[in-house]
Amino acid sequence: MNGWLAIAGLGPGAPELVTPEVTATLAQATDLIGYAPYVARVPERAGLTRHGSDNREELDRASLALRLAADGKRVVIVSAGDPGVFAMAAAVFEAVDSGDPAWRDLDIRVLPGISAMFAAAARIGAPLGHDFCAINLSDNLKPWELIERRLRLAAQADFVIALYNPLSKARPWQLGHALNLLREELPETVPVVFASAVSDAREAIEIVTLGDAVAERADMRTLVLIGSSRTKLIARGNGRPFVYTPRSAGVLS
Ligand SMILES: C[S@@+](CC[C@H](N)C(=O)[O-])C[C@H]1O[C@@H](n2cnc3c(N)ncnc32)[C@H](O)[C@@H]1O
């Protein structure tokens, strides 16, 4: 039997935002691997062995997936959102790069999903309509000084910035520091969007200015979008403005 490994994105949370390709691949799998809350999002069925694990065990998870696929299993390893965005796809390729040379010839596929920044942006309008970047605020795998440098340069370049992993119990101060740094570089009027649990029953979206943004508003399931100097609001009767960034900047007429 030929084994394979699919690295699949489950999207931001709502079942209707899982792609048909991911659903069809999950239906063929013998083994399901991932962070336990993500594995729990896939319905149980006969013939599917579930391997839920703790957070921060990405490389162990990747090695297990590769070993099972090499043994002939049909393995799906799941991430939230898109598997290539701060998630399991890079961990799998790190394991392939440094692991058993036979893993290089395995059938490995990456199945895209809807990343949190796209789901959050779609809820409020088109904040990513012009140039943007995504920064992971976690300093588990990189030094905080590097994050500060990237934030400062991104703000100076006037990118819209999507901040992933803004806060956790183990990382309580990082988002506050990031907001203070951004206030040194950007106008206080720049829109900031706190988009939490997007597409879940607990979804909550708040639009404030950079001057009023407080870190305590975020939790582990919040995507924070920092507008550029050109990001605009369109006021509406329901009190919930559209947020968008015009497609053009600095165009000479
Ligand atoms: C380890 S990263 C994984 C990102 C994921 N691969 C993606 O493409 O969305 C986890 C972070 O994604 C963001 N996130 C994931 N799901 C979310 C959701 N439904 N609503 C808002 N943010 C979400 C949060 O910033 C969270 O801390």
Sum this structure up briefly.
With 253 residues, the protein is of the alpha/beta class.
Q: Can you characterise this structure?
A:
Helix content is 28%, strand content 25%. The strands form three sheets. The chain has a five-stranded parallel β-sheet with strand order 3-2-4-1-5, with helices on both faces. Strands 7-8-11-9-10 form a five-stranded mixed β-sheet, with helices on both faces. It has a three-stranded mixed β-sheet with strand order 6-13-12. The chain is an alpha/beta fold and 253 residues long. Helix 3 packs across helix 4 (88-98). A hairpin with a 7-residue loop joins strand 12 (232-234) and strand 13 (242-244). Bound molecules: S-adenosylmethionine (SAM). S-adenosylmethionine is lined by residues 12-13, 79-82, 85-87, 115-116, 120, 164-166, 195-199, 220-223.
Q: In which range does the helix fraction lie?
A: 25-40%
Low-pLDDT residue intervals, each spanning 5 or more residues:
none
Mean residue pLDDT: 96
Cα Rg: 20 Å
Task: Give me the side-by-side strand order of the main sheet.
Answer: 3-2-4-1-5
Structural class: alpha/beta
Strand % is 15-25%
| Major β-sheet profile | 5 strands, parallel
